[in-house]
Specification:
- The structure is a homodimer of 120-residue chains.
- By secondary structure, chain A is of the alpha+beta class.
- Helices cover 53% and strands 19% of the residues of chain A.
- The first copy, chain A, contains 4 helices and 4 strands.
- Chain A has helices at 25-37, 40-47, 51-64, 87-115; strands at residues 7-17, 20-23, 70-73, 82-85.
- Chain A is elongated and about 50 Å long.
- In chain A, 30% of the residues are buried.
- The A-B interface holds A 3-5, 7-18, 22, 64-67, 88, 91-92, 95-96, 98-99, 102-103, 105-107, 110-111, 113-114, 117-119 and B 3-5, 7-18, 22, 64-67, 88, 91-92, 95-96, 98-99, 102-103, 105-107, 110-111, 113-114, 117-119.
- Strand 1 of chain A pairs antiparallel with strand 1 (7-17) of chain B.
Amino acid sequence: MKPKTEPSLVPRLRVMRGKNIAFGPGKAELLALLAETGSIGKAARRMGMSYMRAWSLIRTMNQSFKEPLVFAAHGGRGGGGGAKLTETGRKVLDLYRQMEQTSLRAITPSWKQLQQLLPD
Amino acid sequence: MKPKTEPSLVPRLRVMRGKNIAFGPGKAELLALLAETGSIGKAARRMGMSYMRAWSLIRTMNQSFKEPLVFAAHGGRGGGGGAKLTETGRKVLDLYRQMEQTSLRAITPSWKQLQQLLPD
């Protein structure tokens, strides 16, 4: 990552259920890392969070949707906990990334106007 | 506010400058309340934050843009601190609200697909 001094616009989409966040930026990143690494331990480390915190986010996601998003198993070789996205997990992650991109594209014209009010 | 059990999608747009949030949902709400009440003390109370916290958010906003967003004065009658949006402040708030609405409209089709994966 190069150092950023340019202003940037970051859309953070939250799927709320009452006061609970069923899905959002952190859970999306976790899903993506689980898909990449296949390991709860590795994904948690990459996000700088504890294994138990990652496990708790997975539990929340799995309970928030009709079908689980992640097949997960505690322990295993190396004790890191294996994990794999379900079909629903992949769909949710794809839709979420699509929404982020769509959102960003749609707001670009207003964002350019707002940037003119920010210093160079 | 009625109790919400239906899932809802909340786009939270953040204008980042490096690691700092130059503008986002909290600052937008504060601007709107300053415009409505004309008082830092009243706006802070409505947001459940301290006067000093509101003052600090105003300072950050004013320093992040080319021109200040808020004319503000400590103290005054009742000690609440008077405040008024500048022309730039009104523009920034309008553009931000516009971006929120544009974002939400643009992602509605994907959001409908995602909703089908959530329980009723």
